[in-house]
Write a structure and sequence with these properties.
This protein has 464 residues and is mainly α. Helices cover 76% and strands 0% of the residues.
């Protein structure tokens, strides 16, 4: 069987469903399946989507998923700073307190394969809503914890729900859009997380001032809202109609295969291996090294106050937000490979600038300026590497169920986020900041090599 994405799906002409045409989105969605007509006043209203540049011309489901991502990231941004503090209130060591954070990430990582299998078996919508519900309920009870062990176990359970939500939501996102819109759809999804992630910490201090347990209840509330949005606005009929149409357009009459077989076939393509390499690099550098080392670098190397790191992360987020739409459009118009090259090169340059900033003996003002420049460049990298690799995964899936393919893609990023701080901290202790940042540059450069040798999975970009 010919695996879609490398040849057949990549060269397929985009389907009318979800494409940038003047046809009514509802009419397109009802080309197959006869789903119920959505309310125009809903979260995914065509009027709303046309007014938001990131959502313009995209299917309703993308707007709904972006809204869900916002509520999830908003609550997570509020609760994450309070977790070590709450754990410490039980009189445990610093290591034990930080283990609560790691438990969530670890269970999310190890349960991703199961989440992929469940997505294939039960469907994206059901697994998505169930995952959100698990995180919501576990967070509610975590806020009521009477012991450290209770908190640890409940956060671990939340990690399982998080894996279910992330894998199923990404699989759904990539299945309901045609090839010519996948880059912009991934950018919209990323934008929801970005806005929520920036907003969460901004109000987290106010919530924490109420009570040390309040952030958990607030997080449970935002997750409950996300669950309701998923159940109300993700129409099963519409999803089925879109998925069938995209699958017929890209995969044709190829025989469906099991989850492990689909993953094995995907791993046989250079494009998928490049997407994995890039996502691993992003997990190591963006979610691992940067998050763990930048605050220390600001205080110990630049001799500045801790607040400077917050401003630096804000600069990176602003640059990323500005470039989300251009990155998504480039991914859809010019192809996945050029966007991934730009993002990977920017990642190498950004980490290299940090190395130079640490080694230089320039004035403090110049050092701080160079530091902000590096964070801006890394913001460019995050924007381009958030949409293009995901679009590659969608091309590889070719409109099929791809829970295992998406799960493996998500797992490498989670793995990088877990081991990145550990490797970075070890290199910092042994050799200093320059070696830690150089390691990040080397990882990004390795991912760039994979990208340079990958084939383009979007053979005929749509002219819009």
């Amino acid at each position: 069987m010919r695996w879609p994405g490398a040849t057949a799906a990549a060269s397929s002409r985009p389907t009318a469903i979800g494409s940038a045409t003047t046809s009514s989105p509802t009419t397109c969605a009802h080309a197959r399946g006869g789903g119920a007509r959505p309310d125009a006043r809903s979260v995914g209203s065509p009027i709303v989507r046309q007014r938001v540049p990131l959502l313009r011309d995209l299917p309703i489901e993308v707007a709904v998923l972006a809204s869900i991502a916002f509520f999830v990231a908003l609550g997570f941004g509020i609760v994450i700073p309070s977790i070590p503090i709450f754990a410490d209130s039980f009189g445990v060591s610093a290591l034990a307190a930080s283990t609560v954070v790691s438990a969530f990430a670890l269970m999310r990582f190890v349960s991703s394969p199961l989440a992929g299998a469940w997505t294939n078996r039960f469907g994206e919508r059901g697994v998505l809503a169930t995952g959100l519900g698990i995180v919501a309920v576990s967070s509610l009870f975590a806020g009521l914890s009477q012991s450290y062990v209770q908190l640890l176990v409940l956060r671990g359970i939340g990690g399982i729900g998080s894996a279910m939500f992330t894998v199923s939501a990404m699989a759904l996102l990539l299945r309901v859009v045609s090839a010519d819109l996948r880059g912009r759809a991934a950018a919209a999804w990323q934008g929801g997380f970005l806005i929520g992630g920036v907003s969460g910490p901004a109000i987290g201090g106010l919530v924490l001032a109420i009570s040390i347990r309040a952030p958990f209840f607030f997080y449970a509330g935002t997750l409950a809202i996300a669950t309701v949005v998923a159940l109300v606005f993700l129409s099963p009929q519409r999803i089925t109609a879109r998925e069938e149409s995209v699958e017929k357009s890209e995969a044709g009459d190829d025989v469906k295969v099991s989850g492990w077989t689909e993953l094995k076939q995907a791993l046989g393509t250079r494009a998928y291996r490049a997407a994995l390499a890039v996502n691993l690099s992003s997990g190591l550098t963006a979610f691992g090294l940067r998050s763990a080392l930048i605050p220390l670098f600001v205080v110990e190397a630049l001799r500045q106050g801790p607040s400077l790191s917050g401003w630096a992360f804000l600069v990176a987020a602003v640059v990323q937000a500005i470039l989300l739409l251009p990155a998504g459009r480039l991914t859809d118009l010019r192809g996945r490979r050029p966007a991934m090259i730009i993002g990977s090169v920017a990642s190498v340059i950004g980490m290299a600038i940090l190395v130079a900033d640490d080694l230089a003996t320039a004035s403090t003002t110049l050092a701080v300026t160079v530091f902000f420049l590096s964070m801006a460049v890394l913001g460019v990298a995050t924007a381009f590497l958030g949409s293009a690799p995901s679009a590659v995964v969608g091309d590889i899936m070719g409109g099929r169920q791809g829970g295992s393919v998406v799960a493996a893609y998500q797992m490498v990023s989670d793995f990088g986020a877990v081991v990145g701080p550990l490797i970075g901290g070890l290199l910092l202790d042994l050799y200093g900041f320059d070696w830690a940042f150089a390691f990040g540059a080397a990882i990004s450069a390795t991912a760039l090599v994979f990208v340079l040798f990958m084939p383009e999975t979007l053979r005929k970009p749509a002219q819009v």
